[in-house]
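Look over both lines:
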Amino acid sequence: MTTTLENKEQDKAKKGDTKELDLNELKKSLAQEEAELERLKRLKRLKQQEEKTSEISPTEDQPMDDSKIETDKHERKNMSPQELRDARRYYWQQKQKEEERKKKPYNHFPSFFYAGFWFRLFAFIIDLILIWSINRLVVQTIFLLLRLPLNDNDFSAYSLSKLVVYLLYFVLLTKATNGQTVGKIIFGLRLISFKEEQLSWGTVLIRECFGRYILKTFPFIYLMVLFTQEKQHLADFFSDTAVVSENLIRASKLSLE
C-alpha cells in the first residue's frame, strides 16, 4: 500500500512539474511573438514615415500646407526617438542625393564603375607609345628633312612640336570618339561628363589641353585618382568629368534589358 501511495504522489508531482514547464514555455513563446509583432509594427511605421517625409517634404517651388505640417507634427509625436533619428537621416540622405543630381545631372554610376588607377595608367602608357611613334616618324623626319636642330630644350621648336602632337592626340581623339583614345579603347574605358551627355569642345579643351599640360608638368597629380571617390584627378575636377569602365556600363544595360 505504501509503495502505491508513493507512486501516486510521484505521478502527481511530475504532472505538476510538466504543467509548470508548459506554462513557462507558453509565456516565453507569447513574449517572443509580442516582441516580433512590436518590431514589425515599428518597421511598418518607419516605412510609412519615410514615404510621408518624401511626399510631404517641402520643395523650393511648392511650400507645405498648414494641415500637412500639423499632421507631420502629430505623427512625429507618436514616433520614438530612434524612429525620428532614422527618418531624419533618411530625409537628409535623399536631400543630398537631389542636390548632387542638380549639380551633376548626367552619367551617375556606382563607385565601382569608375576606372581605377592601374587601368588608366596602362591605357596612358599605350597612348604615350603611340605619341612617341608619331613624333619619331613625323616630327623628327620633318626636322631632319628641313635640317633643323633636334634640340630637346623646353622652349625649342622641336620640343614645342612634340608638345603640340601630344596635346592634339588627346584632344582630337577624345572629341572624335566621344571620350576615348587608343589606350582607352583597348582597356574598355571612356571619359564621361557629369554635366553633358556628349562631350563638348569646351570640356575636351579644358581637360585634354590645359589639364593634360598641367599633368605633364606635374605628373604626381595623377595620384589623386587613388584617393577620390569617383577616381578623378585635377583635370577631371576642372571639367566635371570621370573615366568609367565601358564594359561594366554595357553589362548593366544588357542586364536591365
User: Anything to note?
Assistant: The CA atoms of residues 50 and 94 lie 10 Å apart. The first helix runs from residue 2 to 56. The chain has two domains: 2-103, 111-256. The two ends are 85 Å apart (CA to CA).
